[in-house]
Design brief:
Chain lengths: 322, 263
């Protein structure tokens, strides 16, 4: 496998994200002994990445990384690719990587496959598999350029376990020129509370039009979500009715999600919604209509009124986790 | 200032997808087509900027055969001034980078200074072309934008970053913006708009018109190839829980804890 695999390890300022460990574990398995390295932006240490298989950790740090800009991110990627000369680059399908990777691909004149959910080695090359049409269909994706770029949907692979080992830390010199960074972040609004972004969430509680009002969404859905540390989600109907913000919409025209647990409350299951959540490991549905299409994908179903069932479930979860 | 809008035709989000030939992609026979929903926000935002006298004209760009002209007409009926359809046998089989090379050549030739696009097309879900176009033109790009202000030669955009963070970003024009849901509420075409759209001209341009080397686009230049298409794997059968509400809720919590082992 050429010169191995480079992984983009994202962090939240203090800890590396779960995706960093997911991608390192997968990279190690795919590389078959070829070197695995990591790129860290916005800090100058490797943390514990060495224990999870990153033999070399490239770091790009400085004030320019205080906020995401495609200019600095792509420049760091370019420097890391040039230093590591990898056959494959893997990054999480985060907002940042999905913004930067197309620019990197165009700059290097190479191929990039977006948001794969599977990766395997076939004939010496890494082949991806990715959802399309919001998850209504899947295809293999082959990237034939000298370096193949992939972003990977969070929660697609198990995170590895620490096996000891340390990494060689290499600080990249970016040599940023005027004009390299074309955007300036002038303000940044943090989300209220510590809710995990839907695309990375491990647990999601979603509400449909049946919540009847914004108050219904807040008291039924948000309360249930909070009881198990889940992120709240919503159907397109609930968003269009103004019960929840656009950023919480799950489906083909919203966020495509991949949690371990998805609880659908009062969601009938329009095609475009099912496309966006059907890869969830366990799906729980609560709906008055026994014929609702969502029940076809459901692991555990309750035919009932969400205004009666959800508060009981909130209580039961709270008691179980106490 | 001329605004270029990148437009793609996609199957409606209400469509069930079928596979006829696993090597070729989805079956397109009886599909209902629409403008990519995110591109509609891009068209609408461009038209609003023109309404506010911040732009002189709005031109739609799309890569595709004659079959996509109805979608172009839809955008013209909303109020776009003109359209360029990029079509050439040499474009066949392009990957996202190839498509971006075609579009950026056309935008450059037309002296466009703001490009509006959808944050992704809901068919391939690639979310690549607008950023690639920006890179090829050496322009700024702000993606996944839910609010936009255009000043004198500059812009301010509200974009979704990771972890639910909302960034306010400034950049100079020329630039590429990709639209998220929430940017605006797209207008419906008026009857007058639909009638006027029939008279608007759709320019058709090929590789030679753009001065584009055919070898840099199309199947021969594509680094990304997709095959082995399938529908999503079936999910294992689930079960409907029985009893009164209290019993069913207890059973659910037990199952999530003991069977699924996730609570």
């Amino acid at each position: 496998m050429g010169n191995g695999i480079l992984v983009v390890a994202e962090h939240d300022g203090s800890n590396f994200k779960k995706t960093a460990y997911e991608l390192l574990a997968k990279a190690k398995a795919l590389a078959g002994g070829a070197p695995v390295s990591a790129l860290v932006m916005g800090r100058s240490d490797a943390g514990d990445l060495g224990e999870y298989g990153a033999a070399t950790v490239y770091t790009a740090d400085g004030d320019v990384f205080a906020h995401y800009t495609p200019g600095a991110y792509v420049k760091a990627l370019q420097a890391a690719v040039s230093a590591a000369d990898p056959a494959v680059v893997l990054a999480p399908a985060s907002a940042e990587a999905k913004d930067a990777f197309p620019r990197l691909a165009a700059r290097l004149g190479v191929g990039y496959a977006t948001e794969v959910t599977e990766l395997r080695v076939d004939g010496g090359a890494v082949v991806g598999r990715r959802p399309q049409y919001g998850g209504k269909a899947f295809s293999d994706v082959h990237v034939s350029s000298s370096v193949a770029l992939f972003t990977v949907r969070p929660n697609s692979f198990p995170a590895g376990v620490a096996t000891g080992g340390s990494s060689n830390v290499v600080a990249l010199s970016l040599d940023l020129q005027p004009g390299d960074v074309k955007t300036t972040v002038v303000d940044s609004e943090e989300p209220s509370g510590d809710v995990v972004d839907l695309t990375e969430a491990d647990r999601i509680v979603s509400g449909g039009r049946a919540v009847k009002s914004k108050e219904g969404f807040d008291t039924i859905i948000r309360t249930l979500a909070a009881s198990i540390g889940a992120s709240p989600g919503a159907s397109r109907a609930a968003v269009d009715a103004g019960y929840a913000p656009h950023s919480e919409q799950v489906g083909q025209t919203g966020k495509v999600v991949n949690p371990t647990l998805y609880i659908a409350c009062g969601i009938s299951g329009a095609i475009q919604h099912l496309a966006g959540m059907r890869t969830s490991k366990v799906i729980v549905s609560i709906n008055k209509d026994p014929e609702a299409p969502i029940f076809a994908l459901t692991t555990y179903g309750i035919v009932g009124d969400i205004f009666e069932v959800c508060p009981l479930l909130t209580e039961a979860f709270t008691a179980a986790l106490a | 200032m001329k605004i270029g809008v990148l437009l793609k035709q996609v199957p409606s989000s209400d469509e069930q997808i079928k596979i006829a030939d696993p090597s070729a992609g989805i079956a397109t026979g009886d599909i209902k087509w629409t403008i990519n929903p995110y591109d509609e926000y891009a068209v609408e935002e461009a038209l609003r900027l023109k309404d506010a006298k911040k732009a002189s004209s709005v031109v739609v760009y799309t890569v595709g055969g004659k079959a996509v002209e109805q979608r172009i007409r839809d955008a013209l009926a909303m109020g776009a001034d003109g359209a360029v359809r990029l079509d050439d046998p040499a474009f066949e089989g392009s990957d996202c980078l190839g498509i971006s090379r075609i579009l950026s050549a056309a935008l450059k030739a037309d002296d466009v200074s703001l490009v509006m696009a959808g944050k992704q097309a809901i068919d391939g879900d690639n979310a690549q072309v607008p950023m690639m176009v920006a890179e090829l033109l050496d322009w700024a790009c702000v993606g996944v934008v839910s609010k936009l202000e255009i000043g004198d030669g500059s812009l301010k955009a509200w974009r979704a970053s990771g972890g639910g963070v909302q960034d306010v970003v400034e950049a100079n024009l020329p630039a590429v913006i990709t639209a998220d849901k929430g940017l605006n509420e797209p207008r419906y075409a008026s009857l007058r708009g639909i009638m006027m759209a029939k008279r608007k001209k759709i320019l058709v341009k090929g590789a030679a018109d753009l001065g584009l080397d055919g070898a840099t686009v199309g199947a021969g230049a594509a680094h990304v190839v997709e095959d082995a298409w399938s529908l999503p794997p079936a999910r294992p059968a689930g079960r409907i829980l029985e009893g009164d509400n209290a019993q069913r809720v207890q059973e659910l919590v037990r199952a999530l804890h003991e069977e699924a082992k996730i609570i």
